[in-house]
Amino acid sequence: MSVAVEAPPAANGASSSSPQYPDQYYYVDQILDRPGPRTDEAFSAGDPVKSFLREQCKILVIGAGGLGCEILANLALMGFKDIHVIDMDTIDISNLNRQFLFRPKDVGQPKATVAAEFIMKRVPGVKVTPYYGKIQDKDDDYYMQFNIVICGLDSVEARRWINATLVNLVDPENPESLKPLIDGGTEGFKGQSRVIFPTISSCYECSLDMLNKPTAFPICTIANTPRLPEHCIEWASVLEWPKVHADKKMDTDDPEHISWLYKVASKRAKEFKIEGVTWQLTQGVVKNIIPAIASTNAIIAASCCNEAFKIATTAAPFLNNYWMLIGTDGVYSYTFEHEKKSDCPVCGGETMDVEVGKGWTIERLIEWLTENQKIQIKKPSLSLGTKPIYFQAPPQLEESTRPNLEKKVHELIPEGGEVTVTASTLPFTLTLRLAFV
Ligand SMILES: [Zn+2]
């Protein structure tokens, strides 16, 4: 059986003997030229929406790696014409299998620049402005110029930074200051995309406790009842390496060290009839590498760009507000509304109440802050009002506050006292109200 499909009209000027290519935006126009059952009330079909998408909308892509390459290509093909991209990395040969805007000749070049040039060459009429550097190099004025920001990052730190920056940018008097943030992330066969309207919907910081902790295997399983190839590798690296090499530190970048671990783990696996220990897996386990999967990147990037398109055109309601994809056992996906937290240090405005052990020292409190899933702050500095409790930097202040580390928390901070926590990596401060238990 054959299905008749109406051929798209040829682009202007195409003669009957040349191939019949449709206009570049023919298929996108099918969505924009008429309202559908789910279009927003604000949607005005035809030229106004096309003109906004193609002439006015300025979109920023953060990251030009696995997700970023896909995102840039999708946006360009959808009709976004003023695209900016930031990435601080250069191209490595190991990127080429999935970061498809790059070729062997590009190795060593900045990702942002090469990606921008590739897109402009391939999709006529699109302008991509690259910036090779860190997102932290740019100020509020820079971020104010965009209508939408999309992140395709592999760093929690960078996401926290851009999230807090966009939340701080919001001025209730100026609706233009509200920049929708679309965040995509992948980890092996899993991924998620989400839409954040800073100060209005749940922000990145609100969901910090959803991040996976790195997998740790119980030591008794590793030592006595291994079932997985990973258990054998952990046995070799955690138990056997220190036994055999005493003080010599394992270097996970040294191929000879990995080969030694591989040999020892393979022997162990054979004893327990476990299959699957390979050199690559050994390296992956000890370096904590989760393989990047090109198809996961493609799905998540498609979802992010779909949301950008819907926000820019109002052609359909956008995601509210979190979509997750799990491809490890079959394919499962789920959409839910992640709720805003009233005590979110970035968008909540309320002080976070925390319970602290009576006997805790300041050092213990700092350790707890770095381990806490909801806070996850590296190298925090603490103060009570204007009084420094402990500062990580500058060196003189660190030295003068260091004796406080051994003191009990309740000696320095009263019950109900509000402690200000800062860290150089985060563009916000956290206020904790302490209760002793
Ligand atoms: Zn928040």
Automatic annotation (TrEMBL):
Question: Which UniProt keywords are given for this protein, alphabetically ordered?
Answer: ATP-binding, Ligase, Nucleotide-binding, Ubl conjugation pathway
- Judging by the UniProt lineage, the source's domain of life is Eukaryota
Q: Where is the composition biased (Low complexity)?
A: 7-22
Catalysed reaction, written as an equation: ATP + [NEDD8 protein] + [E1 NEDD8-activating enzyme]-L-cysteine = AMP + diphosphate + [E1 NEDD8-activating enzyme]-S-[NEDD8 protein]-yl-L-cysteine
Its pathway? Protein modification; protein neddylation
Q: Which PROSITE patterns match?
A: UBIQUITIN_ACTIVAT_2
Q: Name one Pfam family in it.
A: ThiF
List residues of the E2 binding domain. 354-437
Give the matching InterPro entries: E2-binding, ThiF/MoeB/HesA, ThiF_NAD_FAD-bd, Ub_act_enz_dom_a_sf, Uba3_N, Ubiquitin-activating_enz, UBQ-activ_enz_E1_Cys_AS
Q: What does this protein do?
A: Catalytic subunit of the dimeric E1 enzyme, which activates NEDD8.
Please state what the protein is called: NEDD8-activating enzyme E1 catalytic subunit
Per the UniProt record, the source organism is Tulasnella calospora MUT 4182
